[in-house]
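Researcher: Sequence recovery benchmark, item below. Answer with residues only.
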């Protein structure tokens, strides 16, 4: 598991806790601490991340902006996760102005990401 060091408060310790939790359910995880300049300057920009990595992204406080993090069009969507139903519904969300329809789409999209878990939200 790639993790930056010196970027976020307790970044390496957070990665160790996540690795420990995953090991408790049978996944073998090795934490690989990497200085932030190498992590962001080379690995992230060149999309050379490990299959599991720590990346801090803040909340935008809207469903559409938060769901954008797992959209294949998001520049930092480094998981390469893609789901046809998600992609179709997300495109609909970006073009929909009716608040009730936007809420319905957001709930459906959140369910897809919950079920498939392309990110582990901390």
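Model:
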């Amino acid at each position: 598991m790639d993790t930056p060091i010196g970027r976020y408060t307790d970044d390496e310790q957070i990665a160790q806790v996540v690795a420990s939790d995953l090991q408790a359910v049978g996944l073998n995880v090795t934490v690989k601490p990497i200085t932030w300049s190498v992590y962001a300057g080379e690995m992230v920009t060149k999309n050379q991340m490990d299959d599991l990595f720590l990346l801090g992204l803040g909340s935008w406080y809207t469903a559409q902006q938060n769901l954008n993090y797992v959209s294949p069009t998001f520049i930092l969507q480094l998981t390469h996760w893609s789901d046809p139903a998600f992609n179709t519904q997300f495109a609909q969300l970006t073009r929909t102005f009716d608040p009730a329809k936007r809420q319905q789409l957001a709930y459906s999209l959140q369910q897809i990401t919950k079920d498939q878990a392309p990110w582990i939200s901390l």
